[in-house]
Hints:
Strand content: 5-15%
Shape: elongated
CATH architecture of the largest domain: 3-Layer(aba) Sandwich
Largest sheet: 6 strands, parallel
CATH topology of the largest domain: Rossmann fold
CATH class of the largest domain: Alpha Beta
Amino acid sequence: MINCIAFDMDDTLYDEIDYYKSGFAATAQTIAVDFKLSGEDVFEAIWEIFNSGNYKTAFNAAADKLGIVFNADYIEKLVKVFREHKPDIKLPAESKDVLEDLKEHYKLGLITDGYLPAQEYKVKALGLEKFFDYIVYTEKLGREHWKPSPTAFEKLLAELNVSAEQCVYVGDNLKKDFLAPNQMGFKTVRVIRPKRIHKGQAPSEQAQPDYEIDSIGKLPDLLKEL
């Protein structure tokens, strides 16, 4: 019998691209002040580069486009601004409705990878604390315990006093979300959000989810079938 639902956060409960947009707005303002440029022009340069698929060197590419130079120390400053900004993001109504519904019937857990305090700020901005019985920030466990490590899943099972066979894990990223819970005996569900950032293939058959849905709103009906 299923009595526990565990979720990933980014690109599962909301569109992660909204977080990037918020972060780039904050860094664009910093660049604009430091280099006496238009904040709107800086943001548009970064956003265009990011949306072209350049996720790793968007700041340097934007500097080239704007005709300025960022040294390594300044890049570190921008990364810090990005990770420590208070995000302008909201929990979609569909996700809110699903969490409110599921909380009445299941224990709920959240397992989220990513740097701190950024992940904590996201949770607060989305208003997620009230829905979850237990939240695991894998960064607090150590970088080696980020997914696909099983550590966070083991902690969640122990904290909620449930077995893997009683749990469903809901995520989005084929590269890292499903391998550990699959191996442990969770049922796994992938939410395929239209605006998702991670679109790569699963590295192995063992990393494939048991089920896929194109809307988190379909999750409650799927759970009734399990």
